[in-house]
Amino acid sequence: MAALNRAGLIRRAFHLEWLTVGWLVVEAAVAIGSGLAAGSLSLVAFGADSEIELASAGVLLWRLRVELLHGEEFSKAIERQASRAAAALLFALTAYVAASAGYGFWHRQGQEFSIPGFGVAAAAVPTMYFLAMEKRRIAEQIDSFALRADKAESVACCYLSTAVVAGLLAQLLFGAWWIDGATSIVIIGFLLKEGREAWSAEDSCDDQD
Q1: pLDDT tens digit string along 49-94?
Q2: Interatomic CA distance for residues 118 and 113, integer angstroms
Q3: Long-range contacts: 169-177, Cβ < 8 Å, 24+?
Q4: Of the candidates 161, 159, 146, which has an alpha carbon nearest to the alpha carbon of residue 194?
Q5: Who is most buried in 42, 173, 186, 202, counting CB within 10 A?
Q6: Domains, the chain, ranges and CATH?
Q7: What is the pTM assigned to this prediction?
Q8: Rg (CA), the chain
Q9: Which residues contact 1 (CB under 8 A, 6 or more apart)?
Q10: Is there a contact between 108 and 25 (Cβ–Cβ < 8 Å)?
């Protein structure tokens, strides 16, 4: 019964990752396209973040497919590799967020209002929040560090999309060019924490073997 329950959770996680991939493809295309059209660094950065998250989702699809095909025992080694890869992507995302915020502060550059960009960022908030909560629930049940790291990517996307929405509105209404960079910096500590935990997953797995 436990094995059947775990298999069902793995299939659920697999479907969630495909939903994530589908949404991120749309998100990246709209954000980058509207960002280039509006000359908005923040929207382009938001789209680049979506591409990093696509890579993370690809890592998870690989890890989950291994378990679906070969079972839990075979997936343990893959879990270690997937956790390290997900951690590296989290660190890359942290660097990108920091660099984008620093660039905006240095050049006193905010974002220009874009209706398509605002729409996709606003839609990303509930979408990524739902995906993150579902991934967290399943990650706790199957004890997957890689899925926890991917959940962190989804949470980061939720935070970043909120920052983009707030920044677009603030700059439209008040000319507050700095709010986007300031809000984005808040999530850097969260990303570093999740990245360190995912990177140390191999040691934790070894202790459990």
Answers
A1: 788 888 888 888 888 888 777 765 555 667 677 777 778 887 887 8
A2: 7
A3: 169/118, 171/110, 171/111, 171/112, 171/113, 172/113, 176/110, 177/104, 177/108, 177/109, 177/110, 177/111
A4: 146
A5: 42
A6: 2-208 (1.20.1510.10)
A7: 0.72
A8: 18
A9: none
A10: no
